[in-house]
Design a protein that fits this description.
Elements: H1 2-15, H2 21-32, H3 37-43, H4 50-89, H5 108-122, E1 126-127, E2 133-135, H6 136-139, E3 167-169, H7 175-183, E4 190-199, E5 210-220, H8 225-240, E6 246-253, E7 256-265, E8 282-291, H9 293-298, E9 307-314, H10 315-323, H11 336-339
Parallel strand pairs: 1-4
Antiparallel strand pairs: 2-3, 4-5, 5-9, 6-7, 7-8, 8-9
Helix pairs in contact: 1-4, 5-10
């Protein structure tokens, strides 16, 4: 009994010294651990006589109750203090302006290309991807542009060193026509569009040495100029608006015959004439025509059996129209100030 009273007095003295969770945990080990003071008293019960066990057990339980009540009380108090301290140190002043998280945005060229692809896919076309490094044969000769042809001068481009007569960076996505026709072993109908990069030695506000084109090709029986006209009118009105007027002018391309330049009514002035359309009311947007019989024949098609039409335009040009971009070089400049203008959540 004397031992229990001695441990009780020591416990009360130790409880007064507790001022942290660490000390409280140490106190628990000191009294209730494997070799703790209360644990040792509990182990002595079996050594007592039966007439003393009851009284000893009552006193021991009172000691355990005293410890648990004080332990829980001190733990609750210390835990509240820790929480309040943490809340005070980590509080957020919600009156301060939020820090904007930098967020990427889709490039305007990607937006326009995806719109083109979605439109042509809905019209039954297949997306075809051709390589940017091409042979002279595919880039010129099989498009009816022989060596020494003056049309090559307008497409002065980048040749591989030591391969001037053989390989170059493609000047137009029309090279995809050749590859698609040659890969079609059955020589049956084709309906493709090919978007991609092309390269020419140009550099000014409206031209870039690297730019994006999209080429369309349709080959089938009984294809006529009326099919080409209907396709392009539908494409341009869907992309630029139903009020857009379309005009076809005779032109020349070595790989199409007949060939046309396609103009649209100026979307800025509505065809009245302004500085954008050079006061003509019209803006040239693409070239097109019926696939030349020689081009069909060189790729294995019988021009007496199949006809086709092709068209090509610059994706960059439509991006400039759509987003009022005045200098094509800003599209490829990687200036974050330019790109953040197209962070549009409404399209997501």
């Amino acid at each position: 009994m004397f031992k229990i009273e001695e441990v009780k007095l020591q416990l009360l003295a130790d409880l007064d010294k507790i001022n942290s969770m660490e000390k409280l945990n140490n106190l628990k080990v000191e009294y209730l651990g494997k070799k703790g003071k209360i644990t040792e008293l509990t182990s002595q019960v079996k050594t007592l006589d039966n007439d003393k066990k009851k009284e000893f057990g009552i006193k021991l339980n009172e000691l355990k109750k005293l410890f648990n009540e004080n332990y829980n009380q001190i733990y609750t108090k210390l835990n509240e203090e820790l929480i309040n301290k943490k809340l005070q140190s980590e509080k957020i002043d919600i009156t301060l302006p939020a820090t904007k998280v930098k967020r990427g945005s889709k490039h305007p060229m990607s937006r326009v290309q995806e719109e083109f692809e979605d439109l042509f896919l809905s019209m039954g076309y297949t997306i075809y991807d051709g390589p940017e490094l091409e042979s002279d044969e595919n880039c010129f000769q099989k498009l009816n542009i022989a060596k020494g042809h003056p049309a090559r001068d307008a497409q002065d481009t980048f040749y591989l060193e030591g391969e001037y007569e053989n390989y170059l960076l493609r000047t137009q996505t029309s090279t995809a026509q050749v590859r698609a026709m040659e890969e079609n072993k059955e020589k049956g109908p084709l309906k493709i569009v090919c978007p991609g990069k092309v390269y020419r030695r140009d550099e000014d506000a409206t031209h870039s040495h690297q730019f994006m084109q999209i080429e369309g090709l349709v080959i089938d029986k009984d294809i006529s100029m009326a099919d080409l006209k209907g396709t392009l009118e539908l494409f341009l009105k869907k992309f630029l608006g139903e009020n857009t007027e379309v005009r076809f002018r005779p032109s020349f391309f070595p790989f199409t015959e007949p060939s046309v330049e396609v103009d649209i009514s100026c979307f800025k002035c509505g065809g009245k004439g302004c500085n954008l359309c050079k006061h003509t009311g019209w803006i040239e947007v693409l070239g097109a025509g019926m696939v030349h019989p020689h081009v069909l024949e060189m790729s294995g098609y019988d021009p007496n059996k199949y006809q086709g039409f092709a068209f090509g335009t610059g994706i960059d040009r439509f991006a400039m129209f759509k987003y009022s971009i005045t200098d094509i070089r800003t599209i490829y400049g990687n200036d974050i100030r330019f790109l953040t203008q197209f962070d549009r959540r409404d399209e997501e």
